[in-house]
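Structure ticket #2291
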Amino acid sequence: MPKTICVCGGGSLGHTIAASASSRGYQINLLTGHPQNWARELVVTDCHGQTIRGTLHRVSGKAEEVIPSSDIILLCVPGYQIEPILHQIAPFVSPRQEIGSVISSSGFFWMAYHLLGKDKRLFGFQRVPFISRVTHYGHAADLKGYKSILKIGGNTRSDLQGLATLFSDALMTPTVPLSHYLEAALTNSNPILHPSRIYGMLSPLPTTLYDREFLFYEDWDDFSSRVLIQCDEEFQALLQRLPIRHEEIPPLLTYYESTDATSLTHKIRSITAFKGIKMCLKPENGHYVIDFTNRYFTEDIPYGLLIIKSLARLLQQETPTIDQVIRWIQGRMGKSYLTDQGLTGPDISQSGILSNYGIQTVDDLCHLG
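Resolution: structure written out below.
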């Protein structure tokens, strides 16, 4: 009998994952804050012009209606929504279920361990399965790019090999298990990529009002590449002190098949799936200003780069470039996370840093679940 998957969250990944898995014969439940806006059938158009049609078995805003009957629970929400969703589903999950997140680098593992208990099966993707965009909420989406391979990590209770086999089929992409959950929980993808680019793009400009919109990737420059490389080098130094397979989180120069800032700029500008993506600006009085409600700020700083900084604090290692990026962006956001005393700003409670979830030592981190 096919497995039942409960997709939690109705964003672009929720649409595409639900449609893909349903088209492969899996029964899909959906937990969403807007159940009234969903059609029973989902239509996704992929980057090859193929149409993927999926059917939702049950759609609800109530966890008790979709969680108990599901074998796999997959959170498809940004980092700042993970904890609220975990609170919502906590009374209805059991040790038999696999509970995972499509975004693992936002603190999912320590949040779930802290909020659901030590006996749960936890897993998460290293990188999101698809690049996708909603075209008609609750009805249709575009799948703009597949990954060549997907990787999932989990705690010792999770059946990673079984999940890898299932998702290879459900998401039509080869999926393999990682050797340690930290290989999924820590990444130099969005948590470093987006803040580095924002700092590289905007910090040289002596204004907060912009005369035009910026293309996030197609306008990428060498200064952004240098900031990104420096942040990644600091991150890689942290990874060297952890008991993981370091080749699973390669340096960004390796990942993007580049050798220096100039070749990295050229590579990022050329990626087809990144075409047309704009910096998160909004019009105001004939100019453009930063939209701080965008996930580049609500997720990639408090539930991204700050987690990496909290790891550095745990390891007592300096990260000067990461600090510089955090301080500049938090100033623009009107937030205070990082102070001269460390991660002690008044806004730090609203973040995914390790100490917020009881992780005080490297041993706590490495042996979570």
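Closing remark: The two ends are 29 Å apart (CA to CA).
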